[in-house]
Amino acid sequence: MPSENQQSANNLPFSGPRHVAIIMDGNGRWAKSRGKLRIFGHQAGVKSVRRAVSFAVSRHLDALTLYAFSSENWNRPAQEVTALMELFVRALDSEVKSLHKHHVRLRIIGDISRFSPRLQERIRRSEELTKNNPGLTLNIAANYGGRWDIIQGVQRLAEQVQEGQLRPDEITEESLCQHVCLNEQAPVDLVIRTGGEHRISNFLLWQIAYAELFFTDVLWPDFDEQVFEGALTAFAQRERRFGGTTPADAEHPGGNFC
Known about the structure:
Elements: H1 4-8, E1 19-23, H2 27-32, H3 38-58, E2 63-70, H4 78-101, E3 105-109, H5 117-130, E4 137-144, H6 146-162, H7 173-177, E5 190-193, E6 212-215, H8 225-236
Parallel strand pairs: 1-2, 1-5, 2-4, 3-4, 5-6
Helix pairs in contact: 3-4, 4-5
């Protein structure tokens, strides 16, 4: 987690992305290349999470969203899933006090109902402890899928229609936006994927419509401040238009994607 020196190292607001999302890929391959079980890669990946959060705080990002466990990851071997769940519990127990100390607000996005009562309770306590913190918002996507996110938003709108609170012709992008995850946060400006794959893997499908994408061959356990800085440098060189013909014509979505 960030040191006091890191927190005060840069007193000026960072002019780059406000919200960065990362698909943390490559833990298993990192472990395999060292002749170890996949869980060793996931354990090493926790250290990279600490580095990424520390860096995000030092650069004054508004939000950092990490793709920790997708809804498709339940299809992995049962032993690996069990180990991942236990690692999640231990990480919450060991990291939340440090997050709180450094004013980080923790949010877990995704369908947590499938998690054990023990893990759900850890999540609830961690979010409650940090909910009023004014610094970086750290979103952990766990049992999350972009299609699930959109569907649950549509279901909420359908409930409003059924209850007579909303007409079908009143359903708009703006109304759906209010019911997807991260709707109250800054829009996702930059998506980083480690591990060399060039795909989104059902991550924040609605929220990253105008985000810049950055792919790196670096495996997640090797992701460090230098690689993160390289992604921000690449972002700064992009010409963002948001559907306009020139940057001057572009209209950035406001406080959220919509």
